[in-house]
Predict the 3D structure of the following.
Amino acid sequence: MYSYTPKNNKRFARAYVRGVNASYKDLCAVCDSIRGRNAASAIDFLASAAQGEKAIRYRTHNAGMGHRKELGGGKGGYPKKAAGIMLKLLQSAYANANAKGIANVKVTHAAANKGDVIPRMSPKGKRMRMDYETAHAQVVLEEISIPDWSKPRSKGNAQKAPAAKAQKPKKEQKPAVAQTQKAQAEKPANAQAEKATTPNAPAQAQTTAANETQKAQTPATAKQANAQTEKATSAQTSPNDAPKAQTAKTETANKPDIQKSQ
């Protein structure tokens, strides 16, 4: 009954419909638009196509069709009836996958074929033949193997991640490195400032040496100056003291006379 069998022992789910009142050409175009898609995204696409919101590309049986801007200039149309039939079929296959415990599935096979053709005649007027054509459709979903890098993190891994980041000390050392760089940058500036503030260091050294020599010479010079001052004072005082000395001599000389007269 199915024209496709899964390989590599993969888990799958499928669904089919027979004798549906729809054009197999439209059903084939809808199957081409969902083949290879994820089941969930294919269901959303068919839901919007069944309401006429999205166009379906016709790769074959497209004679006389117009070019659609939403299809990039390709030929297509809006087969609402065929899109609604395939939507119900895909939802049935997706429910079968969930019943089997298959979570992630994609549309690996979708096909439509021409069914029975039942002759019909017009009920009134001129007798004309109007055939009643039916179609068959089938969908197969297979499980998808998700790689480890695309899986969401569990709660245990989410809690371990911050601890691993906290163990890295490199980010915390950045301020210390910045301070060392600033200190290194300030050293040349400080050296230049010291040079600018003390440009007369040799002159100061000369002045200090001169002051020390003067201090060493001051005791001798002070003694000489004191001796000279004493001489000068003695010289100045000697003329004035001469009458006093003479008077003292006369007084001593006259004392005996006075005693004798008494």
